[in-house]
Design goal:
Blueprint: E1 8-18, E2 23-25, H1 36-46, E3 57-59, H2 69-79, H3 84-98, E4 107-119, E5 122-132, E6 136-140, E7 153-157, E8 165-170, E9 177-182, H4 190-196, E10 198-200, H5 204-226, H6 231-247, E11 250-252, H7 253-261, H8 264-281, E12 288-290, H9 293-299, E13 306-309, E14 313-316, E15 324-328, E16 334-338
Antiparallel strand pairs: 1-2, 1-4, 3-10, 4-5, 5-8, 6-7, 8-9, 11-12, 13-14, 15-16
Helix pairs in contact: 2-3, 5-6, 5-8, 6-7
């Protein structure tokens, strides 16, 4: 989703939160002299995980957005970048205040300021907030092993494997654009609901993501419950759905129904399923939106085009559905007949 090739790391600070003793260990200095090699390592650890995110959020508050503590801090960080250290301490204090669950762990709180993060073709400044609760073990060796009696040192540190909790706030139009990561379930949902207080943005990224998920669920779950439909027909519908999103720049629901679903009974079933899912899952996309090609590329991997036949055969269906036929022979065995012109 985001592009970080031209991104720069400007300031880095970390504080330590000790939940067990309700103690904050706050730093008064930043690490702002970062060389190119260090910057690349930081981007790999702290920004690369967000490149897989296909859901965008924004700050919210049930009464007034100005009452959201983290949002207010971000406004000051955007308008008064010289106050970075002071505002980072306010972030740590806010996080400690909302960390009430007994299973919440101690951790290092990293806060970073970036510039040049690309989203939808535009570059933005941003702030990243990371709580590191679990560290990886690694071995450190000296540059010259000669004369070293014990040259292997075991340490713990941060790797690029997985972030425990993180959010990246891009200074787009207010109330900003947020990407969030939360890989821990033992401490309830305080990170997103109490610390950040966020909700899904009403943008083309979420609309594309939601509608593709809706279509997949309709074809794989709802359709077989209403109609007699073969796996090959389901795969064909999935392929046509993805092809529509790949070959169009904008989504139009009526156009999608005509090009993908074809039959009136399928269209009517889809409309009912669509309406029910929007109500039950509070989906907010409209019937017309600009398609986010990055989301389509990632979601397409989840649209399986493999027809599995017992444990003997896997058939990959990518093209013309009319070139594959199904039937049952005189002994009751099911079969598929495939037509082709060339063998590769």
């Amino acid at each position: 989703m985001i592009q970080i090739d031209g991104t720069s790391v400007h300031e880095v600070i970390f504080h330590r939160i000790k939940q067990s003793t309700n103690e904050l260990m706050l730093s008064d200095e930043t690490s702002d002299d970062v060389n190119e090699e260090e910057s690349n390592v930081m981007k790999k650890i702290f920004l690369k995980p967000f490149q897989n995110s296909t859901i965008t959020y924004e700050f919210m508050h049930p009464i007034s957005i100005d009452l959201n503590p983290l949002y207010s801090i971000m406004v000051k960080m955007e308008t008064e970048p010289r106050e970075f250290i002071a505002q980072s301490k306010h972030i740590a204090e806010h996080l400690q205040m909302v960390s009430k669950h007994p299973n919440i762990k101690d951790g290092d709180l990293f806060i970073m300021r970036f510039s040049g993060i690309q989203l939808k073709g535009n570059a933005y400044d941003a702030v990243g907030i990371y709580k590191i609760e679990n560290k990886e073990s690694f071995i450190e060796t000296p540059s010259n092993p000669k004369g070293a009696k014990n040259n292997i040192v075991f340490k713990k540190g941060i790797s690029s494997r997985k972030l425990d909790k993180a959010c990246l706030i891009l200074f787009t139009e207010k109330p900003y654009t947020i990407f969030s990561i939360d890989n821990s379930s033992a401490d309830a949902d305080y990170w997103q609901n109490e610390f950040i207080k966020l909700l899904c943005k009403k943008d083309n990224i979420n609309s594309t993501n939601d509608f593709l998920s809706l279509t997949k669920n309709f074809v794989t779950k709802q359709l077989p419950s209403e109609f007699e439909v073969s796996k090959a027909d389901q795969i064909d519908l999935l392929n046509r759905s993805v092809d529509y999103f790949k070959t169009h720049e904008t989504f139009d629901k009526a156009e999608f129904e005509n090009e993908v679903l074809h039959h009136d009974n399928l269209k009517e079933s889809f409309r009912k399923f669509d309406e029910t899912q929007r109500e039950e899952n509070d989906l907010t996309f409209t019937d017309n939106f600009e398609i986010a090609s990055e989301v389509v590329k990632k979601q397409a991997r989840n649209f399986k085009s493999i027809l599995k036949l017992d444990k003997n055969f896997h058939i990959y269906i990518h093209g013309n559905r009319e070139l594959i036929e199904s039937g049952v022979d005189e002994t009751g065995r099911k079969y598929y007949k495939i037509y082709y012109e060339e063998e590769h």
